[in-house]
Amino acid sequence: MYRAKIEVSLKQGHSDPEGEMTAQSLKELKFSAKKVNVSKVYIVVFEAESKQKAEEAVEGMCRKLLANPTKDNYSYVIEEEK
Length: 82
Fold this sequence. Notes:
Helix content is about 35%, strand content about 30%. The chain is an alpha+beta fold and about 80 residues long. It is elongated.
């Protein structure tokens, strides 16, 4: 069993309306937020035969569903689930 923590965020140059709204709200609450970027984190627990197969599976998850290659970057960490 493996556990993957996958972070998906917008590529530079793409608008982040949720981040912009959050930054504005923080300013209204008197916090000095200059910029806020929003990203999603997925925690996926799954079975794989090896660490290499787990990495291949996570790459597939990201490319096929979790991230849009046109506008998103992604990174991940995979650990054995105990």
